[in-house]
Input
Amino acid sequence: MTRFPFGRDILHRFEGNPIITLEDIPFRCNTVFNGTPFKKDDTYYLLIRIEGQQGYSYFALAESKDGLRFSVHPEPVMQPAKSGPFAKYEALGIEDPRLTELDGTYYVMYTAYSTYGARIALAKTEDFHSYERIALVSEPGNKDGMLFPEKINGEYVRFDRPIGKDCGSIWISYSKNLYDWGRSEVVMQPRAGYWDSYRIGASVPPIKTNHGWLEIYHGVRMNPSGPIYKIGTVLLDLEEPHRVVARMEEPCLSPRENYERIGDVGNVVFACGAIVEDNGEIKVYYGSADTHICVATCSFDTLIAKTLEGTT
Ligand code: BMA
Output
């Protein structure tokens, strides 16, 4: 009988997955997941979320020469603020970093978590080792913030995911100075009956293409046994990025392997960044089951073509 073990998903898992697990972390912690990559001068940096044994999260840095085999630096690089204006909003940790290079500066949007809820915060770095906080850019009830890699009509642009009435959708906001944000508009909602019917959020900082901004997002479907997190794509208009050009009908990666099914939060694949390589391949970095870091790849052109087959 013919069996088809490959090609179940549009993104193909690296056979060495998971690429970072607890055993790769040089200090005691609970889990490692949701890393955001950057490639500079032939070095891959991956800012990774560590959940400590206490239960709150912070960030560490992993480095690689091939984007597949990483070593993790001996000390965490960013901890929740202990003093100053960020401290009370980071008391329960910092989560899910997303790195964007914009005009030569590396920005990180992340979730600041406290008893007030989740807020979006913005920091910057020059060397990926030390981080300077800029501002808390949302009120509580918001996460999955990430900056676009360029200004549009002279303004900074970000995605975020405010939790509305029973529903999490992808929103867009604009700012002239990175501190004050406004003109917020909904971009995309969950789709009834689909794999992304319960909740969606932007995942990977938008990638500019000839066909629009490619957004690799996460979608959740609620099942009797709990949520399932999958990865999907959408293309958005370059000038008016709240306008959907095409949204893929199917997910491009679904939890299937044990390392995606089993962990602290099972049935989760959750991307926080991607690298488009000179050879035309995209590497999507994702957390699996909130317990490991993995990578999946495919041809960037294929991903765009599949997305263009989608609906508006
Ligand atoms: C989201 C975020 C992620 C997490 C995912 C699955 O809401 O909190 O950090 O990976 O849920 O648990």
